[in-house]
Write a structure and sequence with these properties.
The complex is a heterodimer. Chain A is built from 7 helices and no strands. Chain A is mainly α. Chain A has 2 domains: 2-82 and 93-130, Up-down Bundle (Four Helix Bundle (Hemerythrin (Met), subunit A)), CATH 1.20.120; 131-169. The longest helix of chain A is centred in the N-terminal third of the chain and has 27 residues, at 2-28. Chain B has helices spanning 5-25, 29-53, 59-90. Chain B is elongated. The chains are: A mainly alpha, B mainly alpha. Chains A and B meet through helix 1, helix 2, helix 3, helix 4 and helix 5 of A and helix 1, helix 2 and helix 3 of B.
Chain lengths: 169, 103
């Protein structure tokens, strides 16, 4: 039992390291297609972290929705807008040093705040194991109004994407 | 809790900062959209970690994460449609070459 939890612990840390390395590859690689593939790796690692936190439904939805649908969309867009000779075009603007300095300050300040805050850990949340049934009950109970709003947003985005991307004559 | 909550938060902070770097530095609009997906994922990891450790009703964090997932899907669809329309009209996907409204 102790051995098993140790393996799980190292598995989670390894997944996190993998996700961070892939994320850095996403923002630094010159070829956009490669960075899209690295984004798929980050998304799969995130789904594994969700599964480690007993969010089974969310892990499945992440794989289906992100890795299945959004990645397909992004790769289609990359292939449709690819230009000849894009190897020689500069892929970053000239502000990467300023951006790095600002982000370093951001990370240091927020990291200090995170380590100084005493995060309360409740026993109820630790022992809980949220099933799909409870999620569905919460959607139909207290969260029914945001649920309806998000369905309207999805319809509007569907129609809007079709109208915007359509060829106008 | 298998690992301390602060480690998860630091991880998602680093993921968010990486995404923000991509948004600030990339020239390609599709690259910026990819980096925004990274940032949304970092926020989702935080929500899940809080729902497993500190929350009073454990399903709330997961509900909000599902909302974030849906919004991310709509963002990708509409954003990439705008990129395709822009490419058809202006023949470019680079942010600093789109300066119609810049004086």
């Amino acid at each position: 039992m102790d051995m098993l939890s140790l393996i799980i612990k190292f598995g989670i840390y390894g997944t996190m390291a993998l996700a961070l390395i892939a994320a850095i590859a996403v923002v630094t690689l010159r070829n956009l297609f490669h960075s899209a593939l690295c984004l798929a790796a980050v998304l799969i690692a995130t789904a594994m972290i969700y599964a480690a936190f007993h969010a089974d439904f969310l892990a499945a939805a992440q794989i289906l929705l992100y890795v299945g649908a959004v990645m397909t969309l992004i790769i289609f867009a990359i292939m449709l807008t690819e230009q000849l000779g894009s190897k020689t075009i500069r892929q970053t603007n000239r502000q990467n040093l300023a951006a790095l300095a600002g982000l370093l300050v951001f990370v240091v300040i927020l990291g200090r705040v995170i380590f100084k805050t005493p995060w309360p850990v409740t026993e109820k949340a630790l022992a809980s194991k949220v099933t799909v049934m409870e999620l569905g009950k919460a959607f139909m109970g207290p969260y029914v109004f945001p649920f309806e709003v998000i369905s309207i947003i999805l319809i509007a985005a569907l129609l809007g994407a079709v109208v915007i991307a359509k060829k106008d004559r | 809790m298998i690992i301390p909550l602060a480690h998860i938060l630091i991880f998602s902070l680093l993921l968010f900062a990486t995404g923000l770097y991509g948004v600030l530095v990339r020239r390609n609009i599709i690259g910026i959209l990819i980096s925004i997906e990274l940032m949304l994922n970092a926020a989702n990891i935080n929500l899940i970690a809080f729902s497993k450790s500190t929350s009073l009703s454990p399903e709330t964090g997961q509900i909000f994460a599902i909302f974030v997932l849906a919004i991310a899907a709509t963002t990708a669809a509409v954003g990439l449609a705008i990129v395709l329309a822009l490419y058809r009209v202006r023949k470019t996907v680079y942010t600093d070459e789109v300066h119609l409204l810049k004086w």
